[in-house]
Amino acid sequence: MPALLIQTPEVEKSGAYDNMSEDWGFTFVIYQKLGKRNKAELVDECKEICDDIITMVMADIEQEILPSLAPGTNEGLFGPIVDDIYGWGISLSIVDAFNGELNPEKWLHLTPEP
Questions:
Q1: 9, 70 in Cβ contact below 8 A?
Q2: pLDDT per residue over 1-29, tens digit each?
């Protein structure tokens, strides 16, 4: 039976002034024990599940539940680790605009005195 491992996201801001964005990069892995199957079949099954997850992320973007997906992914074989566990891992990023507008009401030293 496959399992899902999600690694903690990294958040980065990029761009300049009025054109900044935030990028949430994360990795997930679908993995399972080899057992009596061959490795190629197991990895293909794990990759297919990963592709289904990306398809669902894209559907969420289309329905505006998530902002947008950064172009490209890093993917590949995961394992072997202990007890003949193998899988497929994917790193990707969700990107959204960053509102860097300064709100003087939040910063007393920027609010003009009456």
A1: no
A2: 899 999 988 889 988 777 889 999 999 99
- Global pTM reads 0.81
3-110 maps to CATH 3.90.70: no
Q: Where are the domains of the chain?
A: 3-110
DSSP state string for 34-101: -TTS-HHHHHHHHHHHHHHHHHHHHHHHHTTSS-EEPS--EEEEEEEETTTEEEEEEEEEEEEE----
pLDDT digit string, tens, across residues 73-95: 999 999 999 989 999 999 999 99
Using an 8 Å Cβ cutoff, are 32 and 83 in contact?
A: no
Is the Cβ–Cβ distance between 92 and 73 less than 8 Å? yes
